[in-house]
Write a structure and sequence with these properties.
The chain is mostly helical and 272 residues long. The chain has helices at 8-22, 33-42, 48-60, 66-71, 74-81, 87-104, 108-111, 118-126, 133-143, 153-162, 171-174, 177-190, 192-196, 206-224.
Amino acid sequence: MSTPTPEPQRLFDLYRRLRDHFGYAPDWWPGSPFDIFVTAVLVQQCDWATAWEALGRLHESGLSSLDDLAAADEDTLADTIRPVAFHATKAERLRSLCRYVVRRHGSVANLLARNRETPVVRGELLSLPGIGEETADAMLSFAGQHPRFVVDAYARRAFMRIGGFGGDRDWWFRAPYHELHDLFYDAIRAELPRYGRCGLNSQAPGFTAALRDVHAQLTELGKHHCLKSAPRCRGQGVAGWKGYFHCVDHCRDGACTECPLWEVCETGGGAA
């Protein structure tokens, strides 16, 4: 199985097409570090809108801090986050995680503090029940400001379909997480000045902001156009996540007519 070798410049050009189509939101993953920490757990194997609504119910129920969740009745917590997938398991997991963070660090911000070495924090996260590599990197990048790229199914699917990078296209699905992370990480870092000129969030270090937005753009692509089945290559994209301000107006009411990557995607029929 040969490994694709995407050129950093081409990755940036793809990003620029996505950015022109979807725009930019500095708070694409909104909320406090606590909110993002909790949502990163809730969204596992679950639609974003369902996880986001569950976070809102936690706040409405007065469960809006680490201490609140750590002390919550497990059944009450499970009922509050329903219909999130595996709500009972996630209720137990959230309560356990919050108790750990309260005991060891006092706050999510302290756990993910920028002055802590990224490999150390990541190793600590991965040692906790229910936190895998994707969830850990989401917490590090979006709840903290650590330079990690979040590899998810949207990114794997998009690059398998785009093609043109050499190697085996199914590698994008089979490759270990760390290989994909390093590929994106290195390619984005190599073109960082060009990403910086796109006007990224000044509240995060430039590299972290670029890593965040490449992930955000690929997620938007996967939500609106590059669907798992029946992708919208030459048609209007599907509606955005319910209740999520950033993408609710994307690709609706004639806002678009085709995928922004259609012309350079082998599966979509644009590239030779």
